[in-house]
Amino acid sequence: MSNRIETVTESPADVVRGLYDALGKGDVPGVLAKLAPQVIVDEPSQLPYGGVHQGREVFVQSILGAMMGYADVAITDAEVFEGPAGVVGTLTGTLTAHTTGERFPLTMVEIHQVEDGMVRKIDVFTKNPHELAAFYTRAEAGTR
Question: Which of 75, 77, 76, 83 is nearest to 13 (CA)?
């Protein structure tokens, strides 16, 4: 019998898969567990929560809080690809405005830098940032 303890480490792709799984379930503690304390998230500037954000708490308040404050978020598909430059994730889903019920198809591509089992940086690219920003404006105003 061996007293050796084996540590199983997640691959960078598995870390991002775990992040997406937690996001899909609305599991904020699970999301936070995958993010480095000083994570940097760079969102398209056209969005109400656009710009560079640093820190887990800022991510939850500024990005998740804004997204979920305007709409219900349903992630319908997530794919993760690992390569030498990092991990690329694609997310598709639907946003449904709280105020109007308007549905908006969401497509995002994210580039993740993962170190020591945590996401350190996320660059976010949306397929249609201007249309997404307009959706948020309508959701906030309660108009279609």
Answer: 83
Residue type, 4: R
**21: helix, coil or strand?**
helix
pLDDT tens, residue by residue, 53-81: 999 999 988 888 888 888 999 999 999 99
Q: Supply the pTM of this predicted model.
A: 0.88
For residue 3, pLDDT over 90 is answered with no
- Confirm if 19 and 119 have CB atoms less than 8 A apart: yes
Distance of CA 3 to the CA centre of its chain: 40
Whole-angstrom distance, CA of residue 130 vs CA of residue 112: 23
